[in-house]
Amino acid sequence: MFGGTVRGKLTTLRLPVDADLELHKRWSADMRVRRAGPIGRWHEPAATATWKERWTEEAKEKSSVLWSIAAGDETIGYVRIRFEGAPHAETIGLNQFVIDPDHERKGYGWDAALALHRWIFDFMNMRMAATDRIAADDLGRQRIFEKLGYVRFGHGHAVYYRDGAYVDQYLYQMERETWLERWPNEREYALLGDELTR
Amino acid sequence: MFGPRLEGNGGVALRPPTLDDQKTVVRWMFEPEPSRFWGDRTGDLRGEELAERYKKNAHDPNSVNWVIAYENETVGFTGLFDIDWVARDCESGIFIGRSDLYGRGIASEAVRLRTDFAWREMRLHRVHNWISLRNRGSRRANEKAGYRQMGLMKRYGFRSGQWYDDWLGEVFPPETPAGIFVPPSKGG
Question: What ipTM was assigned to the predicted interfaces of this complex?
Fold first, then answer.
């Protein structure tokens, strides 16, 4: 499926549009993006026609959601999640989370991650969010997850292969209680008062 | 894809699945004992759906599937899944459907055969898996084959009124000086 609008302060998760296809084509072929491991790459590099087919498949896929990340008028990344255990899912698996390397260090990653988790917990009322796709030397994503409240629950050894060597993998999870405790005011709308009894 | 026939000890063998195996095994997933720690006992059991799944498994280039035979009878299945051919890493799984045969070491032997195949025939670098922490039988079978804990996911699943944690394991090939395995027939 494709995801609709989720507003952050600097970024917006929004419906992917055809114009984003060329960016996916570029990101999938950019070694700066790919070296993050599976969280940084959704597919192998391919022609535009193949990317269109991939999007058609994604649009039909009921157990995952793809958003483009926008900052102002620019598309600066994408995020893709899975409903783990669908159709009875209560956990979200974070599969891909990419910020264009040309837009790094502007706070977009953090802002988009916070918006995404508001959707996960405040909007979808999920029990848990987790990812098993973080490379041990990927300090940027680790900082974002740890600041959100994720805890590391696993350490896989020599899992990803790149630059001629193996890299370890960290696994993270965050439960809804942690989200509510850490981010009690992170809501799309303020709570409404009780409805009048008729 | 399907894996080749592998003869083990104690009457245990791994062999390529047939469509009839697929139908039998899937039905076990709807029974309480085999699904005690796994699955949700729901699914599509129509013949055409099972045939489609069978075909998909056979064609999948990134998995190796076997049924487990005990004294020539199908008792479960096992496999290597989501193979990453660059990292030479994959996930493993096992399911014994015949609960009346639990405790006879069938899973242990099946895991041993599967793991050995991953090193000797596929030249994999690592195999990992997720097992319910409370499923001692499965965890023990994997530990005997060399799997070691690499994580513990809290409150992974819910069964019979309580949360279950999941044990994460990984295993690496036994090291040999030149990285060459010596087959048992040659004293290895």
Answer: 0.87
